[in-house]
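>> received
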Amino acid sequence: MVLAAVSDALRAILWEAIDQDPVLRPIVASQEAIVFRNPTETAKDSANRLSFWLYQVTEDEFVKNQPMLRASGRQNNGDEASHKRRDRFPPLALNLFYLATPYAPSSEADHLLLGKTMQVMYDNAIVLLRDEANQIFEELRIILCRLSLDDISRVWEALQEPYRLSVCYQVRVARVDSARTLTHARVIERAAKYGEVV
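>> returned
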């Protein structure tokens, strides 16, 4: 759910800005024109105007080895089960890499759309994800990647497509909750047997 929520949030931010732009609004007809498909698939449909493709996912090494999270509190009912504590493993922290590629009808329109995309990403460098109760559950940072032309060209070579003007963004940190838990029990009784001394 987290990966989908991040992508949907980025698309919503982009569309809100494009929808209010009188120059770009005729080029990008709807929010559905901003797609998450790779450039090869995007080019097959002329209605697609901007590919915001998630092309790489890596683990964030700076937030590894976090402490366990308390999953449930201890109850004091007097029975043995009430003295157990269940902890949840820390979430998996991910960095998401997106390749933004415009597919407008002309090169001039490509420049306009890419420029608007970069402006929106710059102005929204911090994105807060909210749940259904409008509570913040994730803070994302959007960073323009300084990839060399060779690095970007390798991505296009892997797609077996001719190079198109594009930029890369890193979104960090998206946390995926772990489903693993660990149960601890407090020692409440100890029995010891001693042998007879002869």
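>> The chain has a mean pLDDT of 81.
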